[in-house]
From TrEMBL, chains A, B:
Top-rank lineage group of the source organism: Bacteria
Protein name stated in the entry: 3-methylmercaptopropionyl-CoA ligase
Family, as annotated: Belongs to the ATP-dependent AMP-binding enzyme family.
EC number of the protein: 6.2.1.44
Domain AMP-dependent synthetase/ligase: 24-383
Catalytic activity: 3-(methylsulfanyl)propanoate + ATP + CoA = 3-(methylsulfanyl)propanoyl-CoA + AMP + diphosphate
Keywords: Fatty acid metabolism, Ligase, Lipid metabolism, Magnesium, Metal-binding
GO biological process, one term: fatty acid metabolic process
PANTHER family recorded: ACYL-ACTIVATING ENZYME, BUTANOATE--COA LIGASE AAE1-RELATED
InterPro entries: AMP-bd_C (IPR025110), AMP-bd_C_sf (IPR045851), AMP-binding_CS (IPR020845), AMP-dep_synth/lig_dom (IPR000873), ANL_N_sf (IPR042099)
Subunit and interaction comment: Homodimer.
Sequence ranges assigned to domain AMP-binding enzyme C-terminal in this UniProt record: 433-507
GO-annotated molecular function: ligase activity; metal ion binding
Length: 523, 523
């Protein structure tokens, strides 16, 4: 009798989950509280709502509607945050682009995504020339003349079009992945809502939180913090350049309580010196485990570290290791504890470490398996790539491609990356993509690219190359070739020439190469 | 192309929302942390999980399965909390019964609900005699012999049956409502999950929270805190009797951080005296606005007050007025501020105050309208009562029946109750139900029951009665009659005899009677 039709969901008791509602509520409940700070400017929630409404109205005027892709190639500025609400509000799908993409990648992505328009930084639309997609440049800053100005002018009604279904796409994020070409990760309103709620709870975000945007918003929608900080009603502090001086200045000026970044940013802060922050700052970091030196140095500067793990396919962070400010033990012991990636947050369905048979490995901290994830914070799939979707979802969970152990306390700890992704300064580099470029050089016989440890960037690509006999190709020649075909951060920092080690079946032994890259780096 | 079939929800990325997952995660992540304290006992999450597993196994052994109703008539003891997970874990629907119900009401409810079994306090199963439903008595406490003992013995696998759909029923809560007979409010897994998440965020519940159960868990599943505290991984502190001495003792012993109760409980604590709590306790109260005296007294005792509003149809609290510990102003000003019921929490869809035309009243703090609520924290409907469901959902939102004003700051403030519900000690009493009983007395011509203000209980029923001419019926006679037919707390405390004021169309002027009841109470 509980299946009686009058008990079925209806408008009064079923509302599609969407992070747009987070903005609506903050606009309604505390319109006067600070929402965004940038350069010398500050906007209340009411004022930020006006920026969102102007952008949504402008997009609508361009004929953009439900299901259309709106691309943005923007730094962490107010319009970038606004796009996270304006595009979904009209039913469009937001596609954020890494601002450092080489034209090749950029053109591939906007074409694959079928972008209707690309919002660009002032002076940056030229990068789209030849892509067939129109770029629209923003103004430099409020009151600075030329370009699209969403900061002033009449405010049209926001007029939100709620998603017909909460599993409708909200974002399309391209990730390097394994196949060389970027893959389009489709995220939904439901997933974004649930991961944002998980973030709010894991980080303890509230109305008085002040969140510094050291993490690029183009990076997986800023791990969903674009929506999470807005849900909490906190303040977004935008950062133009990831450099120690402005970071420390903004922390002091806006009483920053939270930030997220790769360890490379923290090393920059340590190197910079200067006095400790006047209040504690919670930092979520990932991509590489914090060392004892980093932990000790950051603690002395007033920073508390949380280690997180996630991937674009999971809306950003899925696990957090939060030892808390009163964790016991020496700094070495605490750093060892912090090297684990932690436990799933509240809205993640499941995080497992499984063997090739699909069963959980023993939780002994030694048995290695692959991390799989499932639940509402897992992507819908790869855009226009059903084969890749089926492959990554084989067995009923998302296969991360990351190798890890499971500890007795339920925490995962990553040991290796099946997909050979190189994480440099927090950005993923597909080794296969770099290898593909190298293979295009006529004198290269075989190339294998692995991560080499790097004190500043965490990892950088190291290329092992077999050249055709008789060729005189050297590092200088390959460097010049890569400059033509690869975005700067993806280029190998080191080239090693020689015969590549192979398995009996002819597969390159990347494990051996990684060891050689480590040796080379420390020599 | 976003509607490509391979992007449709699948097991890897869509998991039904259910609060069962909150327990599963706490069991997995911190099995050794304290979950429940009761009398001299304390159970870790692992131990509490065993209680839940034993209860689920026992229910399964009784042949209870998906869609069956499991009733519980229990005080705030560990098994009551366990039932909130054990019943849903086997797909059953939990029906919590007020332990003070008169046999008439009790029999009506268990029959209407179609309860398969009723879990009872030791010695309480006799109340079900003649109802046709079996009562099963629990043991007195761990190791205390007779009765169902879920505290010890083998632990069967929990073996959770996930809901086929997240909009499946999880609970059936009977409320007095307007029609005299209790109505069965159907709550879903999705709604319970979302309201619990909203509670966690609104109250700032975390792993170190210690929640004292002053609020009965049978009251709307303890406003969903049964699930919310478990989601946060905090500790549930059970309370046998709502009396000041044990409350203050438990607050000190278990470092209680949070509790919820009607103001009557707070008055008891104030009257009791004794030293202030050694640490701050956050108290959520509702049903009547805290007075300046109460606010001042409780603050001096270390309590911080939050005023909430909600109803069983909305899973408990929908709005919170949380001025924070540093709210400015005199105690009178702060009490005036706290008399508002606040703002919707994060997972509530919408709270509006609308006029008869369905439009929002001006947010001027003066125009009165009815509170309506919508979104995922609104019930599925009334069990086996499609007419009542359609009526309460007319216009696409839940009609609360409460009259309120909307303030300019977005807060609602209740001014009157359309449904004439009397709230006595935090429990709802339907005036119509009491009137119906009075009308059954052969010498009563007409009766109208309204709320009279009461310093201890907030409100008590006051009956205005017209008797047949020639009858000598008096208060003593009606008191005796009510004792036979009404649960104690529903009985009128005062009877006033005379002709009832009527409108031109013959409707009783309850407004005038309420004024007279107020006058009588203060005379």
């Amino acid at each position: 009798m509980f299946d009686d039709p009058h008990l079925a969901p209806r408008a009064a008791n079923f509302r599609p989950l969407t992070p747009i509602d987070f903005l609506t509520r903050s606009l309604e409940q505390h319109p006067d509280r600070p929402a965004v700070a940038w350069r010398e400017h500050r906007w209340s929630y009411a004022e930020f709502g006006a920026i969102v409404a102007r952008m949504a109205g402008w997009l609508r005027d361009q004929g953009i509607g439900p299901g259309d892709v709106v691309s943005v190639m923007l730094s962490n500025r107010p319009e970038m945050l606004a796009a996270h609400f304006a595009a979904p509000a009209i039913g469009a799908v937001l596609n954020t682009l890494n601002t450092r993409l080489a034209p090749d990648d950029l053109h591939y992505i906007v074409t694959h995504a079928g972008a209707r328009i690309v919002l660009c930084e002032p002076g940056a639309a030229g990068a789209l020339d030849g892509s067939g997609i129109a770029g629209a440049e923003l103004c430099r800053e409020p009151g600075a003349g030329e370009g699209l100005d969403f900061f002033s002018g009449p405010v049209p009604p926001l007029d939100i079009r709620m998603p017909a279904s909460e599993t409708q796409a909200i974002a399309l994020n391209y990730t390097s992945g394994t196949t060389g070409r970027p893959k389009g990760v489709v995220l939904t309103h439901r997933g974004a809502t649930m991961n944002a709620l998980g973030n709010v709870l894991a980080l303890g975000l509230t109305r008085i939180s002040s969140y510094l945007w050291t993490l690029p918003m183009f990076h997986c929608n800023g791990w969903c913090h674009t929506w999470a900080v807005t849900a909490a009603g906190g303040m977004h502090v935008c950062l133009d350049k990831v450099e120690p001086a402005p970071i420390l200045d903004l922390i002091a000026r806006h009483e920053v309580s939270h930030m997220c970044c790769a360890p490379v940013v923290l090393y920059m802060i340590l190197d910079h010196g200067g006095p400790a922050a006047a209040h504690p700052v919670l930092v979520v970091t990932g991509g590489a485990a914090p060392t004892p030196t980093l932990l000790e140095g950051m603690e002395a500067r007033g920073f508390e570290l949380i280690h997180a793990y996630g991937m674009t396919e999971c809306y950003g962070p899925s696990t957090f290791n939060d030892p808390g400010p009163a964790a016991p033990g020496s700094v070495e012991e605490r750093a060892a504890g912090l090297s684990r990636q932690g436990l799933r947050h509240l809205t993640v369905g499941g995080v497992r470490v499984v063997g090739e048979d699909g069963r959980d490995v023993p939780a002994d901290g030694e048995s290695i398996g692959e991390i799989t994830m499932s639940g509402n914070t897992v992507m819908a799939g790869y855009y226009r790539d059903p084969e890749a979707s089926e492959a990554v979802f084989s067995g009923g969970a998302l296969h991360s491609g990351d190798l890890a152990v499971m500890h007795a306390d339920g925490q995962i700890e990553i040991r290796d990356r099946m997909k050979d992704v190189i994480i440099s300064g927090g950005e993923n580099i597909s080794s296969l993509e770099v290898e593909t470029v190298l293979h295009r050089h006529p004198e290269v016989l075989l190339a294998a690219v692995v991560a080499a440890p790097d004190p500043k960037w965490g990892e950088t690509p190291c290329a092992f190359v077999e050249i055709r006999s008789g060729s005189a190709l050297d590092a200088t020649g390959l460097e010049a070739f890569c400059k033509e075909h690869l975005t700067g951060f993806k280029r190998p920092r080191r080239f090693v020439f020689g015969v590549l080690p192979r398995t009996a079946t002819g597969k390159i032994q990347k494990f051996a190469l990684r060891q050689r890259a480590r040796d080379e780096a420390s020599s």
